[in-house]
Amino acid sequence: MGDIEQAKQEIARLSEVLRRHQHLYYVEAMPEISDLEYDRLVDSLLFLESQYPDLRLPDSPSQRVGSDLGVGFPEVRHTIPVLSLDKAYTTDAVLQWMKRTRERGETHLSFTVEEKIDGVSLVLYYEKGLLARAVTRGNGSVGNDVTANAKTIQSIPLRLPKPLDVAVRGEVFLTTQDFESLNKEMETPYANPRNLAAGALRRLKSSETAKFPLRMFVYEAYLQSERSPDSHVGILHMLKDLGFMVNPSLGVFAEDELHAAAEAAVSHLASVRTGTYEDLPGHVARQMERRGTLAHEIDGLVIKVNELAVRELLGYTGHHPRWAVAFKFDAPEAQTTLLGIDVQVGRTGRITPVGRVKTVKVGNSMVSNVTLHNQDYINMLELAIGDTVAISKRGDVIPAIERVVEKNEEGHTTWTLPSDCPSCGTSLVIQGAHSFCPNDDCPDQVLGRIAFFVGREQMDIEGFGPETVAFLVGRNLVRDIPDIYEVDYDGLVGEPGFGTKKAGSLGQAVSKSKDRPYASLLVALGIPDFGKKAVDLLLKAGIRSMEQLLALVDSQDMEPLLAIKGFGQRTVESLFEYLSRPAHRQMIERLGLLGLHMRAEKAEDEQILPQIFVDQVWCVTGSFEHFAPRSLALQEIEARGGRTTGSVTRKTTHLLAGSGAGSKLQQAASFGTKIVDETDFIAMLEGGPDGTD
Predict the structure, then answer these.
(1) What residues have CB less than 8 Å from 646, skipping those under 6 apart?
(2) Which of 206, 328, 482, 673 is close enough to 66 for a disulfide, judged by CB 3.0 to 4.6 Å?
(3) Is 148 helix (H, G, I), strand (E, B) or coil?
(4) Cα distance between residue 405 and residue 230, in whole Å
(5) What is the DSSP letter of 566?
(6) Residue 218 CA: distances (Å) to CA of 237, 407, 430, 501
(7) CATH class held by domain 617-685
(8) pLDDT of residue 85
(9) Measured in Å, how far apart are the chain's first and last C-alpha atoms?
(10) CA 274 to CA 57: how far, in whole Å?
(11) SS3 assignment, position 529
(12) Interatomic CA distance for residues 569 and 63, integer angstroms
């Protein structure tokens, strides 16, 4: 057998194996191999495809990695109706709609109730079973072709098990946990998961989209040839069999419970709830109550006629189908007055206007400040001091001004940002949609940099809170980060708030932070677009010292970094720009002379400890005697091969529960997650039971 034929067979074998493991991990949430084993399979396939590009299959799993080639978004006309839904805002309105629909349908009907995912609508077009196009909703008739980006989403099948011509509609989203993790590393945080998912799906390079753990729930299918199922429940069942990810939450309601139960029984979907029409209000109420416990955001429920033949009879208006309605969960909203606008200067120099409003209750919290993002946002609202505004909590979390209800009577016009930095007076510069202060010595930037550097997730200097930072900077004892290590802390005794004990403890904590690993220092520098994940990737790629990193910057050789899987052009350019500035180089040199680690020791990223937690996902909650702060326990887990997460999901294998553990303990019990106390955890670290039984 020749080399080409052997390569062809191996590419086919690897592709099939990878497709199976992708489906197990991303759709079924039941992985059978470790991440390391999976990555090795991907690397093997990529190598063979690079040697024999003509042998790459049209549905190759390597397309999940994405391309570095820039892509435009041509307009494509939809071949199916991609309409909005009519809205209802009360349960009574839903029941009235159901009554009218039953009268028009002239037959016994059942209705399905699904979660309305707060994501990005996408239509997948398959031709003979292969994904041919992925098109955004657009205006309902024409959307943008984002096929290359959609192929990086692991829950979207590239090939179906049947050679079908079918259009599949669904919603692309990020889980709240993934959103919170990603948003921490964003220089410009996003207001909600939907906005970040939309931005990720429209990246100009599919390799950038591939960095985001986007997912897709599908909920409709339009077959071009084969006979379609006769019910919506049947459609969902078919989609699941074809390898799509279908939201397991479903309600089916009909005139008699037996009818509904019979419909639901064939679906083989989890979490199916059945009942009569009279049971629907209770189901809606339960869904609203459990909204905050879901792993993803929803902004309502969608109620649909289950019988597809009746859907055809009911048809469409020019804007929406007559056989479905959206029950919307309105974001909590209130009206108040804009009292003023303050200007904040971040540690990177970015200028952010913050609105001060007359304190008002929105949902379950009192709101007195709202972020106004940038000048474009203010101009869009035509916002002026004294205006009466409507405030909502987007995603039920971030307060935002939605609109101006009534203009002020004082004659104030649309507010504009100052031309100079409010902290140092330097002329501001505009970069993209934001204004920046270019002065590195700007007092507010210095405060922000130092506060970030000493933070728990960075250098973890205990007792070095915002008040201490402000005091030291205000007394001119600390002008930049290295000065932290040159202060005579014992000499602070007698200053306001500094007793002998506090001054001594602070000095010890500062000295102790010199033992923090190089990776922590690199994160603590606060390089834009270069957080913990990027630092981990850098070390794993073998670039393990500041000396190596600076040598690459001095030679302007970006290629070794761009070759790292997970690094994009923006990340590398941001790193090079930061490390090219003389002030930053001088600061790093001083830190090295002061004794901070400038090289990764073997213990940081080599597996020298027994890897007893490989393939395990741990969450830590509560208070502990030996692990204060809790991050110490997280470090022990990660050092032994485990993964850590901030919330309990079905993928969480272990919960380390200390005293005062609350809702996470209940969630873990409901999922069957193994619960470990501090005593057992210490025994595991010392070589006792591994907790897998």
Answers:
(1) 177, 180, 181, 619
(2) 206
(3) helix
(4) 48
(5) T
(6) 11, 43, 41, 60
(7) alpha beta
(8) 85
(9) 47
(10) 43
(11) coil
(12) 19
Q: Which long-range contacts (CB under 8 A, 24 or more apart) does 317-322 make?
A: 319/83, 319/84, 319/86, 320/83, 320/84, 320/85, 320/86, 321/81, 321/83, 321/85, 322/101, 322/104
Residue of 54, 56, 22 whose CA lies nearest to 39: 22
Q: Residue 211 is encoded by which pair of tokens?
A: 């960095």
Whether this prediction's pTM lies above 0.90 is answered by: no
Q: What is the homologous superfamily of the domain 443-513 according to CATH?
A: 5' to 3' exonuclease, C-terminal subdomain (1.10.150.20)
The confidence score (pLDDT) of residue 71 equals: 52
Q: What is the DSSP letter of 650?
A: T
Q: Is 546 helix (H, G, I), strand (E, B) or coil?
A: helix
Q: What is the mean pLDDT of each run of 10 residues along the chain (693 residues)?
A: 75 80 61 66 74 77 58 80 82 90 82 92 94 86 88 92 93 91 72 80 86 94 81 92 92 75 54 83 89 87 93 80 87 86 93 93 80 86 91 66 85 93 96 89 93 90 90 92 95 90 93 94 91 84 88 88 79 91 94 94 58 85 80 79 78 88 80 90 78 44
Q: Do domains 443-513 and 518-605 have the same CATH topology?
A: yes
For 212, 388, 389, 419, 566, the CA distances from 381, given in Å and listed in that order, are 31, 12, 10, 20, 37
> Are 655 and 618 a contacting pair, CB within 8 Å?
yes
DSSP letter at 657 equals: E
- What local confidence, expressed as pLDDT, does residue 531 receive? 85
Q: What is the 3-state secondary structure (H, E, C) of 453-486?
A: HCCCCCCCCCCCCHHHHHHHHHCCCCCCHHHHHH
d(CA 250, CA 243): 18
Beta strands in 306-422 (DSSP E): 324-328, 333-345, 351-362, 365-371, 388-394, 398-406
Q: How far apart are CA 357 and CA 25, in angstroms?
A: 46
Residues 194 and 118: beta-carbon distance below 8 Å: yes
Domains in the chain: boundaries = 3-65, 86-328, 333-436, 443-513, 518-605, 617-685
Q: What is the CATH number of domain 86-328?
A: 3.30.470.30
Question: What residues act catalytically?
Answer: 116
* 629: preceding bond cis by omega (within 30 degrees): yes
Options 3.40.1010.10, 2.40.50.140, 3.40.30.10, 3.90.180.10; CATH of 333-436 = 2.40.50.140
Measured CA to CA, the distance from residue 465 to residue 451 in angstroms comes to 7
- CATH architecture, range 3-65: Orthogonal Bundle (1.10)
